[in-house]
Amino acid sequence: MRATFAAVFAAFPDARWNDGTHSGDRGVSEWVCSGTDAEDGATIEEKGCDIFTFRDGKIAVKNTGLKSSP
Predict the structure, then answer these.
(1) Which range of residues forms the domain containing residue 55?
(2) Residue 62 maps to which CATH number?
């Protein structure tokens, strides 16, 4: 996960995830990610969700879904 997020922040240095909610041993986080492309200055905004399975206080499984643009 560290390498994945490092790549995201390299491409979108001001990336941020807003509107997250979390709960329980299995959690769902719905979010909106927005940021500015470091190379061309284009802005993005993507809706998505993460589904987590927690084990022993740590993330054991994380799956991500993105809402595709029309």
Answers:
(1) 2-66
(2) 3.10.450.50
CA dihedral 38, 35, 46, 52 (to 10 degrees): 100
pTM tops 0.85:
no
Domain count, the chain: 1
CA distance 38 to 36: 6
Cα 53 to Cα 47: distance, rounded to the nearest angstrom: 21
Residue in 36, 31, 45, 39 with CA at minimum distance from that of residue 13: 36
- Dump pLDDT digits (tens) for 18-42: 766 666 788 888 888 899 999 999 9
